[in-house]
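Researcher: Please translate sequence to structure tokens.
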Amino acid sequence: MSEIAVTEEATDVFMNHRELLFGLVYNMLGSVADTDDVLQETWLSWTARARRDALGTVTNPRAYLVRIAVNHALQRRATISRRRETYVGPWLPEPLVDETADSDPEGPALRAESVSLAMLVVLESLTPLERAVFVLNEVFGYAHTEIADIIDRTPAAVRQLAHRARAHVHARRPLYEAHPRVRREATERFVRAAVGGDIAALMEILAPDVTVWTDSGGNRKPAGLQPVHGRDKAVRLINSFAARRRPLDLELRYRRVNGDDAAVLFEGDSPYAVMVMDLTPEGDQVSGVYIVTNPEKLTRVRRNEEDE
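Model: Translation complete:
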């Protein structure tokens, strides 16, 4: 078989597993751009193996590709950590936005295997290996023995990593999730109050211990250099954000972001902000607000014909 034919065959196998690999790597890194780079590195490693040895020698291409992708992602974490050291203000994951207008809150997410933006924030506090194990085990259902082969650790070490990661995540995230329709209604209530500058409504919908993250990367204002904690401070920040932009007639569209209902604000055809709300277990108040305005993280957000 010619080298071109081998490369084409290897590429077909890779593309058959690309969606799985994207979900794994994105949940490990929280960045679409870095995920795309890792997938490119994975493809190069895979096609190099195909040219060196017959593809038939790989008994389980899926497992082989997952191993390559996960280990490339672990190496990429060092680059991301260095970049974060000079990042201005709070850092939030790059949102995955479902471009379908008026998404059904009970329908499937664009990428069902991606975890919520709030969960990705929690995962940032894990070590790279803990995060890899958590994503593989809790999100994708890999057994500890399979993960041991992927990251080249013993099953006992993987179980220990999984225990630490699970305990840390569950301490910061409630096990109970509000019903999708409850989430949609609470999200719309918050957005109406925030965009409309309704302070009384904001005080009602925000939990007393709410936290607001505003990720502008230093490119847009107003944005706090640290997350804002507490309802009073949160209301002041959100109201200043809304008051500053209201005269520009930002257009509001509801989308699903990382599987959750959220709001996207457009300035003309360009995305201005993505707002994601995290709710209390009861679903009646907002416990966290994540506002991404960094243009570099919104380059993949598009309006569509249904918006017109």
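Researcher: Any highlights?
Model: Residues 61-84 form the longest helix (24 residues).
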